[in-house]
Amino acid sequence: MRRTLVYFALSIVTSLVGAQNSEPGFIKVGDGGTTSVAMSPNGKYAVGQGVGIGDAPMYKSYLWDAENGQLTWMTELDENDFDKSGHFADVNDEKTIVGNFKDENYILSYIDMDEQFSGPICVAAVWKDGKRTSLGIGDFTMDDFNSFADGSFAMAVSADSKTVVGYINQGNSTTFTPCGWVYNESTQAWDYQRYALPEGSQGGQIGSVSADGKLAVGYAAYHLRAMPVIWTSPTECLQIELTEEDASYEDEFGFNYGYKISPNGQYVLFTLNNMIPCIYSMKDRKYVKLDGYPDATGLSVNTISDQGDVVGAFGYGNYFSGTYTRPFWFSYKDNKCTDFEYLIQTYAQGVNIPFSFNFSDKITSNPQSISADGTIIFGTNGEESWILRTSSDRITLPDYVPNVRAVNSKLKEVTVSWDKAINIPTGFILKSYKVYCDDEYLGNVDASQAADASRIQYVQQGVSTGLHTYSVVGEYVATNGKVYESPKSIGVEIGVVNSFALPLFDNFDSPDFTENGWTNELLLGNPRHDLKWQNRTSGDPANETASLTAIVMTDEPYSATLTSRFMDATELDRVYVSFSKKLMYANRDDWDLTLDSLSLEFSTDDVNWVAVRDYPADKVVAGSWNYEQIDITKLAAHKQFKLRWRTHGKAVAELLWYIDTFKVGSITEKPAPEGLTGTISNGKVNLQWQNTFNAYELSYLENSTALYEVSFGDSEGIPLIIANAFDPDQLKMYDGKYITSVTTFLYEYLSDEVKQTRASILIYEDDKVISEQEISDQIINGYTFTVKLNHAVKIDANKKLKIAMKIFDYNPQSTPVYYQCSDLFVPGKSDLYSEDDGKTWKKLSDFYATVPGQEEWGYCNWPLRANVSDEEVITDSPSLDETLAGYCVYRNGVQINEGLIYGPYLKFTDEDPVDNGCYEVIAYYQNGDVSEVSAQYCVGVISGIQENDAVTIIKVYPNPADDYIYVEGVFDKLQLLTSEGRIILETTEGTIQVSGQPSGLYFLRVVSGSKVETHKVMIR
C-alpha cells in the first residue's frame, strides 16, 4: 500500500471549521508550501497542490478534510514510478476527486535530434474510496498525440460522483476537444462521450459541471478568439450571446472563457477577454459585468456560489517590477465588487487572521473557491493555503461613499471631499464618515453635523510631500446595534508638492507623475483598456526621451485626465503655457476621427473646468511633432489655478496622443529669432530667418533629421569633395553679405589603429576656389559642428557659388560623409561630388540611378550650411544652441506650420498666402523655454508683387513692449490704436514711447502711400 504523508492541524480546527459549525473563523491549511485548487460545495473537502505547481500532473496533490482538520498528500512526483502521480482539479461532497495522472498504459515515444524519448501522457482519473480509476482517452488513439503534455483531463465532478467533464488535449495544447464521462451502473465502468461544439468552432474545453450533472460550462475556440459556452447536454450547447455594447469582444483576439457554473446551475461565471468577470443568469438569460479596479494587468477567477457571489483576484505589476494581487468579493444580490478585506470586515468580525489581504501591502493572495452557500472560502496567500468561514447572516450592503476627491490647494494641506450618502439601506442609520490616508485612519466627520451639506469635506494638515492615497468609508448602525461600514471608496491618488510657484516644467522623463504633483485619473471608460496617461518613448528627434502618452484603444466612451498641481500666479501679470504635441494612429490610418479629441483645460477650484484649447482628432495633422505657446493671462493672471490634459470621445478611432516639454511660465526666456525676411515666388511666400548666432543659413537641407551613409566602392580612402551649388538668382537676398562660417557633419569609426579623418572647407566662385581652410578641431562621430572661417567670403550675387567640404587622408574603412535623403533634393545642386579634386563634378543621383532598387538613395542633400552674416568680422566663435528644438511660423497670429521646423532648418514656404499677411517666428527649446516673438515680416497684395522681388519689410519690435516700440522700413506715418480702434498716437518717427500706456493689446497702423498694414502689439 502506498504511504501517504499526513499533516495534523491544531486541535481547534475541527471545532472551528467543522461541517456542523457556522461560526466565523479562519485556519491555515497545512504547514505551508501549498496552493489551493478547489473545494467541495459544502466546504467539507478541499484539494490543492504543492508550491510551484503548474498544470503538470506529475507533481504532488493533497486532500484536506474539514471533519478532522487533516491535510493528506495523496500523490507525489516520482519519475521512476508514475503510478504515484496525480494532479487534482475538483472534489465533491462525497470526497470524490477528479484530475489526471501519468498513465503508463499510454506510452508516447518519439525521436528528436537522434535521441529516443519515451514516457506516459496525461490521462483523466477519478479518486474515490482510496482507489484511482483511469478514464482513458476516449475515441482517440496514441497516434493522435505528440507531446507528453497531451492526453485527457478531468476538470469537474457532479454531486453524485457519476458525471465527470473535461477535455482532450492534442499538439501540446494547440487543439482541445470537450468531453465527459458518465458512470454506467450496469457495467460499473465509465462511458466516454464527446460534447458538441457551436458551428464553426475549432475545439473547446469544459471546466465545470452543475451539481446534478445536467449543465456544463467551458468555451469554444475559433481562429484567434474564444467564446463562453453552456452545454445543456452532450449533444446541445448554448453560446453566451454578448450585448451590443460588448460585441467587439467577439472580434479577433477576443478571448472570452466560460469558467464555472454554480452548483445549483443558476449562474455561470465567464470573462471578457480574460480580464472582465461576468455573471450570467440562466433564468434571465442576461449577464452583469463586475466593475473591477483600475490598472489591473491580470485576473484569476474560477468559482461562483449558488447566490451568484464570486471571489477571485486581479493581478498587478509585471515580471520586472514584481507581481501582486488585489483579492476581491462580488455580491450578486447587491451588485457590488469590493476588496476581499471588506468581506472579512463585514462577515468575519473579530476573527484573528494572520495574513494581510490589504491591496496596499502588495500581497499575493488568491481566493480560489467558494462554497455553494457563499459562506466558506478556500484560498492561498503566498505559499500558504487557508479556509475562511464567514457569517451566514447577510445584510444589504451600503453603497460606496460617492465622488471622493482630494485637492492639494494649500502647501502641506489636503482637502478631501465627497458627496453626501443618499441610498441608505433600510434598518441602517448613517453615523459618520471615516477618512483614510494611505490606509491609515485620519479622523471622521459626524453625519448629523453634515446633514444639510450636499458636499462634505475633511482637511488634513501637515501633509508630507509625495504620493498619497485617500479614501472614505460610511459608518452605519443597524437596528440590532451592530456597526457596519460601507466598502472603502476606490483610493484617490494625489501628489503633494512643496511649492506652487511658477515656472512648472515637465519633460515626463520620470515614470512618477507625482514628482511634479500630477494626478492621473480615468473619469469614464473601461479601466482595463489602458486609457490613463503614461510615459512612453516619444520618438521626438529633437528630444529622444520619454513623453506623456495617452493610448485610445477601446470600444466605449472614455475620458482620461492628467491634472497638474495648483500653480500660484497671484502676483503675476502674464501667464503662458507651452508644449509639444503629436498625434499618431494605431493599426491603420483610415479611422473616423470626428468623435475623439484632446483638450487642454483650466480650473481655479479643481471642480469646474473650461477649455483652453480643443484638438479634435480630425483637425490635427498626424505623425509630426508640433510646438505651441498659448497665452492664458486672461484666465490665470492673479489667480491660483490648475491645468489638465484630457483625452475624450466615443472611441471610434484608435489613437496615440503624445505631449512633451510642457511648461507654464510668466516670462519668455530666450531672445526673439532675428532677421525674418522673405521673397515671393510662384505665388508663394518663402521665409527665412537667422540661427541662434544671428546668421542666415545657405543650404538645401529640408525639415528632417534623416541622414544616410554614402560610400563609393573603389574611391574609399581617396580624397572626396562634396558640394552644394547656388546660382545668382538664389543669392540675391545675400548679395553683399559675408559667409563667416560653415556648419557640417562628419562620422567615422575610431580606434587606436584608425587615424582621424582630415577635412577642409572650400568655397568656389564661378568654379574657382577662393577659400580653402582645413578643419583643425572638427567634432566627429555624429555631432554637428561649425567651422569659423579665418577670412570671411563676401557674396557676389552675380556669380555662381559652391560651398564644399573635402575629405582626405582618412581610413579606407571609414565612410565619414553622410547626407539627408529627401524627395526635395535638387539634382546638380544639392548632390554634387568630385573624386578628382574638383576638376569634374558628378551627381550622386546619377550614381544611384544605375543601381536597381536603390534609386532613392541618390536623393541627396549634403549637410553643408554656409552661415551668412551682415558683418565681415564676427568676434565670437559661432556655436549653435544645442537645446533648441525648433521653430513655429505664424501668419496674422495663427500658426501655419503643420509640424515643428527643426533647429537646423531656418526656412518655411507659405504655400497658400493671403494678401497683407504678416509673419512672425517663435523658437522653442527642449527645456521648455520659449523665445520672444520675432519682428514681423509683412507682404502686400500677393498678386501685385513681381516674381522674385523682395517685399518691403516692416519690422516692429519688441513685441511685447515695455518702454518703446521700434519700427523699421519705409512708411509715411504710424498710428497707435487701442483695442477698441481709437487712435491715441500718430507720428512719422520710427520710435514710439509707450511706457505711459496701460498694459494690454494695441494695434499699430503703418501707412505707406495707399498701402496700410496693421500689426498687433502688446504693451506690458
Give structural attributes.
mainly beta, Immunoglobulin-like, six-stranded antiparallel beta sheet, 5 helices, 77 strands, 3% helix, disordered N terminus
Quick structural summary:
InterPro entries: Secre_tail. With 1020 residues, the protein is mainly β. The radius of gyration is 38 Å and the shape is globular.
Characterization of the model:
The N terminus is likely disordered. Strands 38, 40, 41, 44, 47 and 49 form a 6-stranded antiparallel β-sheet that branches. Strands 39, 42, 43, 45, 46 and 48 form a 6-stranded antiparallel β-sheet that branches. A 6-stranded antiparallel β-sheet has the order 57-56-59-54-61-62. Helix content is 3%, strand content 47%. By secondary structure, the protein is mainly beta. Among the domains are: 92 residues, Immunoglobulins (Immunoglobulin-like), CATH 2.60.40; 162 residues, Jelly Rolls (Sandwich); 96 residues, Sandwich (Immunoglobulin-like); 164 residues, Jelly Rolls; 67 residues, Immunoglobulin-like (Sandwich), CATH 2.60.40.10.
Task: Produce the secondary structure layout.
Layout: E1 5-8, H1 12-17, E2 25-29, E3 34-39, E4 45-50, E5 61-65, E6 70-73, E7 87-91, E8 97-112, E9 115-128, E10 131-136, E11 151-157, E12 163-170, E13 175-184, E14 189-194, E15 203-209, E16 216-222, E17 225-233, E18 236-239, E19 258-261, E20 267-272, E21 276-281, E22 286-289, E23 298-301, E24 310-318, E25 322-331, E26 336-339, H2 340-347, E27 365-370, E28 376-381, E29 384-389, E30 405-410, E31 413-419, E32 428-437, E33 440-446, E34 455-461, E35 466-478, E36 483-485, E37 492-496, E38 504-506, E39 519-524, E40 534-537, E41 546-552, E42 558-563, E43 567-568, E44 576-585, E45 596-603, E46 610-616, E47 626-631, H3 633-636, E48 640-649, E49 655-665, E50 677-681, E51 684-688, E52 696-698, E53 707-709, E54 720-726, H4 728-731, E55 738-745, E56 758-765, E57 768-774, E58 784-794, E59 801-808, E60 818-821, E61 832-834, E62 842-843, H5 844-849, E63 860-861, E64 865-869, E65 884-891, E66 894-895, E67 901-902, E68 907-910, E69 918-925, E70 937-938, E71 955-957, E72 964-968, E73 973-978, E74 983-987, E75 991-993, ...
Antiparallel strand pairs: 1-6, 2-29, 3-4, 4-5, 5-6, 7-8, 8-9, 9-10, 11-12, 12-13, 13-14, 15-16, 16-17, 17-18, 19-20, 20-21, 21-22, 23-24, 24-25, 25-26, 27-28, 28-29, 30-31, 31-34, 32-33, 32-35, 35-36, 35-37, 38-49, 39-42, 40-41, 41-49, 42-48, 43-48, 44-47, 44-49, 45-46, 45-48, 50-51, 51-68, ...
Keywords: Signal
Domain Secretion system C-terminal sorting: 956-1019
Signal peptide: 1-19
